[in-house]
Amino acid sequence: MGLSMRATETGVLRGLARRAPLRLRRGLRLALRRVRHAGWRRRCPVCGRGLREFVADPRTGRPAAMCPLCGAMERHRFLWRYLESETLLARADLRVLHVAPETCFEERLRALPGVDYVSMDLVRSDVMVRTDLQKLVFADAEFDLVLCNHVLEHVPDDAAALRELFRVTSPGGRVVLSVPGPDPARGFPEVLEHTLEDPGLVTPEARMRRFGHPGHLRQYGLDLAQRLGEVGFAVRHVLYAGGAQPAEAERLGLRGAYPIYDCLRPPS
Q1: Rounded-to-integer distance, Cα 34 and Cα 143, Å
Q2: CA–CA gap between residue 255 and residue 242 (Å, rounded)
Q3: Of the candidates 87, 62, 93, which has an alpha carbon nearest to the alpha carbon of residue 75?
Q4: Of the candidates 130, 151, 163, which has an alpha carbon nearest to the alpha carbon of residue 233?
Q5: How buried is residue 45: exposed, middle or buried, by Cβ count under 10 Å (0-12/13-18/19+)?
Q6: For 129-143, how does the pLDDT look when each residue is reduced to its tens digit (9 = 90+)?
Q7: What does the pLDDT read at residue 150?
Q8: 44 three-state secondary structure
Q9: Which residues are paired to 175 by β-bridges?
Q10: How far apart are CA 205 and CA 208, in angstroms?
């Protein structure tokens, strides 16, 4: 697509988006982004679309972090590749619980045939079920796959949350979760051996200074695998590199490796 044609289409769509009823604006804005970022140099593993480049994280400014079409960040791209590589989404009649759902995943999961999808959160209004991860409303062994990414660090009683995740997972089912890892900007340049918590930090400002986020209650260490094992899971702590050759990894926006906890509830 030539630059002049792309500019013309962008202008038309922007004008329509301004005048359209509210219910149509989201679709028009998505169409606008697709025109603006159309290309084949990169491809997002989550939405599967081609694009010119990944864009900077709007919150931190980190370069080449986000897919401008679906919003997937680096961790989402690694996680989706992992789910596909492990064929965790391939079985029929899969019951999936998505905790604090990421929009980029939710759209793909809802579209998969044979998936019985449930999203949940404690406070958000755009989920299917509002419930507390420390005391879930679901029945025992209700789900075959649970996705819980960058959530546990926000939960006051994470031990209770882990017990609940085990309870609602079916025998032979899996919980795939991740937590924030090393980040020099937040004062954690290396992986911690032991989880760092400080109950005395009761204000968002204090938590921001200590953990780099006003809602974080802890910074997890490698002992998270032990915590998961103590509630009954068989845990694989995977440093996942994306399963692609270097050139393809660059095209997919997969740089380095990402730590994932793949937790099996042993068959009874």
Answers
A1: 35
A2: 9
A3: 62
A4: 163
A5: buried
A6: 999 999 999 999 999
A7: 96
A8: coil
A9: 146, 263
A10: 5
Q: Please name each of the domains of the chain with its CATH number.
A: 3-38 (no CATH), 74-264 (3.40.50.150)
What single string gives the DSSP state of each residue in 2-32? -HHHHHHHHHHHHHHHHHS-HHHHHHHHHHH
Q: What is the 3-state secondary structure (H, E, C) of 99-153?
A: ECCCHHHHHHHHHCCCEEEEEEECCCCCCCEECECCECCCCCCCEEEEEEECCHH
> Torsion angle of alpha carbons 183, 107, 114, 43, nearest 10°?
-70
Residues forming beta bridges with residue 62, ordered by sequence position:
none
CB 107 within 8 A of CB 135: no
Tokens 């910074």, residue located: 219
Q: From the CB of residue 2, how many other CB atoms can be counted at a distance below 10 Å?
A: 7
In this prediction, what percent of the chain has a pLDDT beyond 90?
71
**Res. 97: pLDDT tops 80:** yes
Helix, strand and coil percent figures for the chain, each rounded to 5: 35, 20, 45
Please give the Cα distance from 259 to 190 (Å, whole number). Answer: 13
Surface-to-core class of residue 205, CB atoms within 10 Å of its CB (0-12 exposed, 13-18 middle, 19+ buried):
exposed
- Digit-coded pLDDT (tens) for 237-246: 999 999 999 9
Note the residue count of the chain. Answer: 268
DSSP 8-state code for residue 170: E
Q: Answer for the pair 116, 95: CB distance below 8 angstroms, yes or no.
A: yes
